[in-house]
Amino acid sequence: MRKVIDSHMHLDEWGSEDFIPFFDEYLAREEIHAVNICAIPIAQSNVCNNIMTCFYKLAHPGTYAHGGIELIKIPIDNMPAEMDALTQYHELMEIGFDGIKMLEGKPTEHKRIGKSLNHPSLNKLYAELEKDGTHLLMHINDPDEFWHEETAPQWAVDNGWAYLDGSFSSYEEIQRQAIKILEDHPKIKITFAHFFFCGKTPELLEELFAKYPNLCVDLTPGGEMYEAFAGNYEYYKDFFNKYSKRLVFGTDRCFPEEQSYANWCYDIVTTFVGTSETKKGYGDKELVGLGLSEEKQDDIFFANFERRVGKEPKPINKEKLKAYIEKYSFALTEQDMEKIKPLMEKYL
Ligand SMILES: [Zn+2]
Fold first, then answer.
1. Which of 23, 187, 241, 289 is packed most tightly, with the most Cβ within 10 A?
2. Of 178, 279, 172, 155, residue with least CA distance to 229
3. End-to-end alpha carbon distance in the chain
4. By the 8 A CB rule, do 140 and 208 touch?
5. Which one, of 193, 187, 192, lies nearest residue 212 by Cα?
């Protein structure tokens, strides 16, 4: 039986039911060895995203977690010194996060931070991550079709992810800023989510892989990248063989969401990476499995992640978590505190 780590999942809200059974059920699939839950407080401006993630780690200690920076003030260089990005990074690592997740490169969040990804306040953070060898999972951009009226899909428009009114940075500009992070911090252990949205321009990834030894991309859909894989199959078969050490498995599924959707997504990606079978995936074209060797499958399914993040997830330091909840309580609503209190009683 294969071993899989889902390197990229989310816990978006408390939801009406407990979030703990959702991940428990997903993990009940025997081949899933562990999940990595990525907190993205910036998306909801809600620091309890980090806190909930810690509680899942306490409920299920085999779980990895990546923490996110809470945007206390905008633009990002306005954050108070005792809560700037670098300080928050150290706090998260002391609590027991296994890495950092940034959504700051998604056009909507990029607009909210109000500064370039290369701003000194973020450069300090990258420098520290590079020095510490801490893993950074970073969402950069979105599919390039989201910038054009003729090509932006309706579901992207409905989510506020159509970048048509000129107020968002361009795909090229955000990509340029991401590459600049690598130029300035060439050893940073960074994984760009969603294949860096380069399904149509994989030669750029080849160039970057040649220059930056610690760069990986993950395979979380982006359905459009799976359409690109299907449409350029022979090229991608070679690509996956050649770069198996640079590709990381994940689904990007989140709570609250239908478990069946997470399973559907899991099946498409695992069939593609782990078999030679044909499966109807995203778009019209059928997706043919890559037929990779066991060793290369292992790289993608778990070994690359373990090499980058660690063979065992870090434990939660309860005292540090309590101090964090206390310090950021000003950013929590009463409803949040109602949810947090019983969890504190149970786990802290
Ligand atoms: Zn994600």
1. 23
2. 279
3. 36
4. no
5. 187
CA of 339 to the centre of ligand 1 (A): 24
Ordered structural domains, the chain, with CATH: 4-347 (3.20.20.140)
For residue 328, what are its two tokens?
């950021």
Burial class (CB in 10 A: 0-12, 13-18, 19+), 108: middle
Distance from residue 8's CA to the centre of ligand 1 (Å): 6
Residues 177-228 pLDDT 10s: 999 999 999 999 999 999 999 999 999 999 999 999 999 999 999 889 999 9
Q: Could you tell me the distance, in angstroms and rounded to a whole number, from the CA of residue 217 to the centre of ligand 1?
A: 13
pTM reported for the whole predicted model? 0.97
How many whole angstroms from 252 Cα to the centroid of ligand 1?
5
Q: If you measure from the C-alpha of residue 54 to the centroid of ligand 1, how many angstroms do you get, rounded to a whole number?
A: 17
Ligand 1 centre distance from Cα of residue 12 (Å):
10
- Contact in structure between 313 and 63 (CB atoms under 8 Å): yes
Residue 341 burial (CB < 10 Å; 0-12/13-18/19+)? exposed
Angstrom distance (rounded) from CA 229 to CA 237: 9
Report d(CA 5, CA 27) in Å as an integer.
Answer: 10
Q: Residue 18 Cα, ligand 1 centroid: separation in angstroms? A: 21
User: SS3 of 282, please?
Assistant: coil
